[in-house]
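Sulfate transporter family protein: structure, please.
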Amino acid sequence: MIFSDFIKAVGQLSDRRFLGVLGLGLGLTVTLLAAFYAAFVILIGWLLPDSFSLPWFGEITWIDNALTIAGIPLMLLLSIFLMVPVASAFTGIFLDRIADAVEAQHYPHLPPARHIGFVEGLGDGLKFLGVIIGVNLVALVAYIAMPPLAPALFWIVNGILLGREYAQMVALRRRDAVGAAQFRNAHKVTIFAAGVLMAVPLTIPVVNLLVPVLGAATFTHLYHRLNAHPSRTG
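Here you go.
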């Protein structure tokens, strides 16, 4: 059933409202990745001299050129780690637009939702962003200590975090804070599974750029499906 929610979200990618948000999200993401890459190059430039000599190798002058050539691959690698906080921040800022588009097409009978204001959404997004960064920094120790298990650990940790964030934000459009918490608690397993479904493509460069939009849409479908059938868990 979760996959049906995801397929519906993918099927609406051509919606002009999705495309508008996707364009904004792509611009935000690429700008962020470019800023991190620029900061990385500047840091390396400060730490390493323009040229230096090594025994047997002579003078080394190719560091700057190597960083320039490696720019795109490096940004793609960075995107694996940066797209988790980007997806979280994106949810707080743009979720209303995506959820409105999904509900207009698939659930037109519903009354208007409570819109999460920009300031409220940004504040919630930034608070949860801190949680995501903190948890992933702690988890980084486990990734390094157990490299073969790193992908699975990444999916599990961020599946929990993203599932909670998406479910909370979607539920708050239709319920108060207590009701949103009750919704999350009643469907923990389903929300976790859907969160992992969002976390897995985050590790695929380029594809991960679509995840924030697809995540917001998928969880909107998931919320309405579970709300219509509260006794079902997936």
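Notes: The chain has a mean pLDDT of 79.
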